[in-house]
Design a protein that fits this description.
The complex is a heterodimer of chains A (about 230) and B (about 110). Chain A is α/β, with parallel strands linked by helices. Chain A is about 45% helix and about 20% strand. In chain A, the strands form 2 sheets. Chain A has a 7-stranded parallel beta sheet, sandwiched between helices. In chain A, strand 7 (about 180), helix 6 and strand 8 form a beta-alpha-beta unit. Chain A starts with a strand and ends in a 7-residue tail after the last strand. Chain B is an alpha/beta fold. Chain B has 2 helices and 3 strands, in the order βαβαβ. Chain B has helices at about 25-45, 80-90; strands spanning about 5-15, 50-55, 100-105. Chain B has a 3-stranded parallel beta sheet, sandwiched between helices. In chain B, helix 2 links the parallel strand 2 and strand 3. The model of chain B has no long low-confidence stretch (mean pLDDT about 95). Classes of the chains: A alpha/beta (about 230), B alpha/beta (about 110). The interface between A and B is large, with 35 and 38 residues.
């Protein structure tokens, strides 16, 4: 297969699906990586040269196995978009150590495990993009983000360390900081009073991620926010 | 822009917008002030439909008089590459606006 390869890690009905659609439209063979394959399998069948892969980012063996199958089927990964994330909401007094660790595994450890799978081939090629989908919580701990904020902050500083170490090898590492509520069936149900304008549209996030992957190396960006125009910040 | 609830204002910043270096006090003071203005305007005007962005240009600019040094390709920012990102910024949809982006050559220390 001659198409460049994009791996979207964390494919749900929101950003993950929009990212897969955008990169498929942009000429990539897309690996849709998620814990289950029900949603990603249905989406893959709608797209050209897309395939679903079962992958649990919190489990090193699962990640290694999944990326082995991706490179065997599609070729080496040119663009990695890490969209896996989990929110567990609660204050310091409410959160359990298990929930804290689970949030860290999906947001932080998974970022490391997945990146380590694609870096060697990108280094050999002297090119590649690794884009993390982050959150404002990476910069600001709120009362009920005692688990989520430390996990996202850890992901963000990992990305920063990666950028400083990998940019000179030709690998563009970047993070999108989403500051708002993503438009999903679930969030619409939770917030029925909010207008259309309140939500971050997944296709708009995907467009910026695609643009990041296309920036010429003489002028790369590291962090970029995506915030609805009416959001307080 | 306000009556139409639509528009974009882009400010070109520099490394000195966010870092004060030795010998750069006058430059850094001016660029910090610009960033403060841009952030205030972004918070004030975004809810009214005007997209304000501050672009941190972190590196030297390539030009006819200043080409990339030998053996260091793309180590200076290509003005066309900067312009591409400005254009992307204008194309961003308002559900996912950025207010600040940095642009930096791949080999630049930061």
């Amino acid at each position: 297969m001659t198409k460049p390869v994009c791996a979207v890690v964390g494919v749900g009905p929101g950003n993950g699906a929009a990212l897969a659609r955008r990169f498929a439209a942009g000429g990539y063979a897309v690996a849709l990586m998620a814990r289950g394959t029900t949603l990603s399998g249905a989406l893959a069948s709608e797209l050209d040269d897309a395939r679903p892969y079962e992958c649990d980012v919190a489990d090193a063996a699962s990640v290694k196995d999944a990326f082995g199958r991706v490179s065997a089927d599609l070729g080496e990964v040119d663009v990695l978009v890490y969209n896996a994330g989990s929110g567990s909401w609660g204050s310091i007094e409410e959160i359990t150590p298990e929930a804290f660790e689970a949030a860290w595994r999906v947001n932080a450890l998974g970022s490391l495990l997945v990146a380590q799978q694609v870096i060697p081939a990108m280094k050999r090629a002297g090119a590649g993009s690794i884009i993390f989908i982050g959150a404002t919580a990476s910069l600001r701990g709120m009362p009920r983000t005692a688990a989520f904020a430390p996990a996202k902050a850890s992901q963000r500083v990992l990305a920063e360390s990666m950028a400083r170490s990998l940019w000179p090898a030709g690998i563009h590492v970047a993070i999108m900081v989403l500051d708002g509520v993503v438009d999903l069936p679930r969030t619409r149900e939770m917030m029925p009073d909010k207008s259309d304008d309140f939500f971050i549209k997944p296709q708009d996030v995907a467009e910026s991620a695609f643009w990041l992957s296309r920036q010429p190396r003489s002028a790369w960006s590291f962090a970029i926010e995506a915030r609805p125009f009416g959001e307080k910040w | 822009m306000l009556p139409r609830a639509h528009g974009a204002i882009l400010f070109t910043g520099a490394s000195a917008s966010v870092k004060g270096y030795a010998q750069s006090a006058p430059f850094a003071m001016g660029k910090f002030a610009l960033r403060g203005l841009a952030q205030s305007l972004a918070r004030e005007l975004a809810p009214q439909g005007i997209h304000v962005d501050h672009v941190v240009v972190d590196g030297g600019i390539r030009g006819r008089e200043r080409p990339d040094p030998p053996g260091k390709p793309d180590s200076l920012l290509d003005p066309d590459a900067i312009a591409q990102s400005f254009l992307h910024f204008l194309q961003q949809q308002r559900s996912a606006w950025a207010w600040e982006i940095e642009l930096r050559p791949w080999v630049e220390r930061f």
